[in-house]
Amino acid sequence: MATAWTLLVIAGLLEVAWALGMKATEGFTRLWPSLFTVTTMLASFYLLAQAMKALPVGTAYAVWVGIGAVGTVLLGILIYGDSASLLRLASLVLVLAGLVGLKLAG
């Protein structure tokens, strides 16, 4: 079970990588960022599928999306200067609380 959670976390981090990489592709018109994005997408999906062998589908998917969403928002703030409003940050705390709850309930 611990291995499944490790794979899921890595899959979520790869989701962050491909989400940020997608911006660099400029609509998939740039070769190297596009190759990076597609490669990290495939790796993320593969690891998610492996984690789902041992974890409940709803929990695995929600945690994968949550890691991707939180990581992408935080790095979007740091790298791209996206808004860091109090409401956005508070919303991220709620997402994190939901992820912890799913892990504890799992």
How would you sum up this structure, described in words?
The structure is a single chain. With about 110 residues, this protein is an all-alpha fold. It contains four helices and no strands. Helix 1 packs antiparallel against helix 2 and helix 1 crosses helix 3. The longest helix is centred in the middle third of the chain and has 24 residues. It starts with a helix and ends with a helix. The mean pLDDT is about 95.
**What is the rounded Rg?**
15 Å
Compute the number of helices: 4
The backbone outline, from C-alpha atoms, is: flat
* Class by alpha and beta content: mainly alpha
What's the total number of strands? 0
The averaged pLDDT comes out at 95
- List low-pLDDT spans: none
Please state roughly what percent of the residues sit in beta strands, choosing from under 5%, 5-15%, 15-25%, 25-35%, 35-45% or over 45%. Answer: under 5%
Measured as a percent range, the helix fraction is over 70%
Distinctive features:
83% helix; mainly alpha; 106 residues; single chain
List the helices and strands and how they pair.
Blueprint: H1 2-24, H2 31-51, H3 57-80, H4 86-105
Helix pairs in contact: 1-2, 1-3, 3-4
